[in-house]
Amino acid sequence: MSAAIQINGLGKTYSNGLVALDKVDFAVEQGEFFALLGPNGAGKSTLINILAGLVKPSAGSARVNGADVQQEWRQARKNLGVVPQELAFDPFFTVREVLQLQAGYFGLSKNRAWQDEVLEELGLSDKADTRMRGLSGGMKRRVLIAQALMHKPPVVVLDEPTAGVDVELRQLLWRFAKRLHQEGHTIVLTTHYLEEAENLCDRVAILDKGQLLTLQTTEQLLGSHPWREVQVVANNLAEPLNPELAKNFNGRDGDWWCWRLNRQQDSVAELLESLRAAGAVLQDIRTREPSLEDVFLNLVAR
User: Fold this and answer.
1) Would you say domain 226-300 falls under CATH 3.30.70?
2) CA pair distance 278, 120, nearest whole angstrom
3) Beta strands of 122-183 (E only): which ranges?
């Protein structure tokens, strides 16, 4: 079985000389929940636009469920549903008309049952006859998701789907995304809320300056970060700290004293013993393991 998305030597250089993508290679496997991360300007949007047939690559190739996005663009487009960042819509169409028009592009204008199911899942049933200009920003975001799903694509790209939405809508979107994934859809997520990628995604690719920095499982990425933080609340502890305690000291957060320890070289037990030897009386202790955000910032640090 072919990969859901196959990228080979993909490059894009714009007419002004900007290199948006530089020989990018990776594959997204069938049924994955995959994160595509990177700072602004990393090349994520260019890559997604190439997959969607909106941008022509300068080099290399891209396939969606085996169909080349340039040579077999009709089938590639049928295989892919993209939920864009921008809230682009016709203000005079109703929600139902938007979905019917989108379905019609793929010869599926009579799929009323599927329209109703998606409207129900996204909490839009009571808005079906409302014109788009009368919807809130969050409701418009839901319509974009429904629109991308009208032809039941096996591969779904969610491009910053929760940007600017409230907590309730964010939770609804992720419940729906999980359901799609459980039903066998391949999901590709771009987001600046890295805790979402950490909680949802099997593997993570990080782009920066048009190049692929890393592609690993979420667990591998988290395990690659060298630091953990140890925080304590203690009586009889004051600055300046003795040399043993000053080593790796990372400042204070209210009552919490913080140390940044190398996970391979530094021992939490040794730190606690040094605190006791200095006369500190421990009241509380906690550790913070690295998050995907820590790993991301470490990799793309300028």
Assistant:
1) yes
2) 62
3) 155-159
pTM: 0.85
Beta bridge partners of 27: 6
* Per-residue pLDDT at 302: 53
Say if CB 68 and CB 60 are below 8 A apart.
no
Instruction: Domain 5-222: give its CATH superfamily.
Output: P-loop containing nucleotide triphosphate hydrolases (3.40.50.300)
The confidence score (pLDDT) of residue 5 equals: 97
Residue-wise over 255-292: b if at least 16 C-beta within 10 A, else e?
Answer: ebbbbebeeeebeeeebbebbeeeebeeeeeeeeebeb
CA distances from 246 to 134, 249, 268 (A): 59, 5, 14
List the chain domain ranges.
5-222, 226-300
Are 5-222 and 226-300 equal in CATH topology?
A: no
183-234 residue pLDDT tens: 999 999 999 889 899 999 999 999 999 999 999 999 999 988 888 999 999 9
What's the whole-number mean pLDDT along residues 49-57?
Answer: 95
